[in-house]
Amino acid sequence: MFGLKQWIKKHKFQFHLATFLMISLPALGLYSAAVSHQVYLQWALLGLVILGNLATLLSD
Amino acid sequence: MNFWLALTPIALILFLMVGLRWGAARAGGAGYLASFLIAALSFGAGTQLISLAHVKALLLSLDVLLIIWAAFLLYRVADEAGAIQTIGSALPHLTADRGMQALTIGWVFASFLQGVGGFGVPVAVIAPLLVGLGFSPLAAVVVPSIGHGWAVTFGSLGSSFNALMASTNLPGEALAPAAAFFLGASSLLVGWQVLHAAEGWRAVWRLSPAVLVLGVVMGAVQYGAAVSGLWNIAAFLGGMAGLAAAYPLARRYNGRIDQTGNDRLDLKKLMVAVSGYFLLVVIILAVQLIQPLHSFLGQVVLRVNFPETVTALGYVTPAGDGRNLTIFRHTGVVLLYAAAAAYLIYRQAGLYTPGAIDRILDGTLRRVISSSVSIVSMVTMAVIMETSGMTDTLARGLADSVGALFPLVAPWIGALGAFMTGSNTNSNVVFGALQLRTATILGLEVTIILAGQTAGAALASVMAPTKVVVGASTAGMAGKEGDVMRSLLIYTGSLVLLVSALTQIGAWLS
């Protein structure tokens, strides 16, 4: 955990860029998944957003 | 019970940012996760509702982020060319009177910088300038901090105001008048506070006429621009008008100016530096006022139609369009045109050293990426709360407990939001819909309440811990942020109190 935090501290920009893409890009696929009631696809995409937001908790 | 659950994501962000000093990106992620869980488990939000909330949030985020990205790019284009430093260092040549220096640099120039840049730039640029002029480090941080607050909502090329429009889905024409009036009225008190912080009560009495002139000019120009639909450059125009008015005033309160040797004012260099911003005004006015161009650029619109959603508890969000984005006429894209044109002018004038374009783009990306993460997280949290009925529950609880006194409280909610999230934009995103809903339930004029929200947030945003840390570090006050906070608390508190009173009076009159 400490090693991961050190890595994030060292690569702050790349880390924030990756989390930004994770929390924003899945929404592009969520509209069609939602209107066509594809529940598994919705959860897969929402999972990515949740993961991205969880990742932000590791930043400073 | 539901009221406290609905309050949890907001309270969590507040606790994490203020109590544990987490950054906005990190706290925003926690707020998002809390809202997601509570909406799904306690408010009956289904998968489709939550998915659509994410899509709506992406559109709203894009609307705000485009402006933030482009505004900072424009600032970097000018800064890399040395234009900001040139304009800043020209100002002390106007007067040797310390009170007037505090007004022209710490108030007027700070407002101008907030109009074009924001993001903590006014304090970061001005604090070292004031220290160099002999002001105490504490005054050097406090003066520009107070000085730019009134210009925050319509500053940063309108990003906070656009966030208010996006989060409430109300047109700028409806929101602008009351917001611009409250902020314009505050600007006068800001001027006196700047003098008090810099030189004490004697300067306040001596330079009151100058404060009146500058405050009325800047407030009136910002108001006029905002109600004419030019809210994206309203603070910028107010700052420009202030600079124009400051020139004869500075001559009136002259002091003794030493203009010898290397210290001589280079007018040609100054004109080139200002030309980038002059271009910005020309381009924005052309896009707004030349009808064929306006129509031509408005042809491509990103529009998404959302179906009706209902929670398991029966809370309905009607079907309708989300935020419409007029791509080539969007303020952010217009700013990109201005940034490109300004870059060409500065390059033509030979103001760039090799590798400038890389430094501009790299600096912009590095500066905006963290705030972009926090904005997407917080906007998504706000939309989940809105569509799952959490915001409605909060609004009903507030309406029941505060009742008719809500107008007095609304600006403090905005101020709290700005303090905890570090920005007027974030506060408007988090609390805009809540304030709108509460005002509707209580039968109050929503534009007055939302004006109180954004004005309170703008004025209090200056004492957000993140901004204070930046300001303190640039003036050699690192480690003494507590002193800056204490000083700002009195000034900012009285400004929010003024807005609180104005909101209550506005609610009575409407």
Structural topology:
The complex is a heterodimer of chains A (60) and B (510).
Chain A: H1 2-10, H2 12-24, H3 26-35, H4 39-56
Helix pairs in contact in A: 2-4, 3-4
Chain B: H1 2-19, H2 24-42, H3 47-80, H4 83-90, H5 98-116, H6 121-132, H7 137-149, H8 159-168, H9 172-199, H10 201-206, H11 208-227, H12 234-252, H13 267-289, H14 291-297, E1 301-302, E2 305-306, E3 309-310, E4 316-317, E5 320-321, E6 325-326, H15 331-348, H16 356-388, H17 390-402, H18 406-421, H19 424-442, H20 446-461, H21 465-474, H22 481-509
Helix pairs in contact in B: 1-2, 1-17, 1-18, 2-16, 3-8, 3-15, 3-16, 4-13, 5-6, 5-7, 5-9, 5-12, 6-7, 6-21, 7-9, 7-21, 7-22, 8-19, 9-11, 9-20, 9-22, 11-12, 13-14, 13-15, 16-19, 17-19, 18-19, 18-20, 18-22, 19-20, 20-22
What would you say this structure looks like, in words?
The complex is a heterodimer of chains A (60) and B (510). Chain A has one domain (2-56). Chain A contains four helices and no strands. In chain A, helix 2 runs antiparallel to helix 4 and helix 3 (26-35) packs antiparallel against helix 4. Chain A is an all-alpha fold and 60 residues long. Chain A has helices at 2-10, 12-24, 26-35, 39-56. Helix content of chain B is 76%, strand content 2%. Chain B has 510 residues and is mainly α. The longest helix of chain B has 34 residues, at 47-80. In chain B, the strands form three sheets. Chain B has a two-stranded antiparallel ribbon with strand order 1-6. Chain B has a two-stranded antiparallel sheet with strand order 2-5. Chain B starts with a helix and ends with a helix. In chain B, strand 3 and strand 4 (316-317) form a beta hairpin. The model of chain B has no long low-confidence stretch (mean pLDDT 87). In chain B, helix 1 crosses helix 18, helix 5 packs antiparallel against helix 6 and helix 16 (356-388) packs parallel to helix 19 (424-442). Chain B has one domain (2-253, 264-509). Chain B has 22 helices and six strands. At the A-B interface, helix 2, helix 3 and helix 4 of A face helix 2, helix 3 and helix 16 of B.
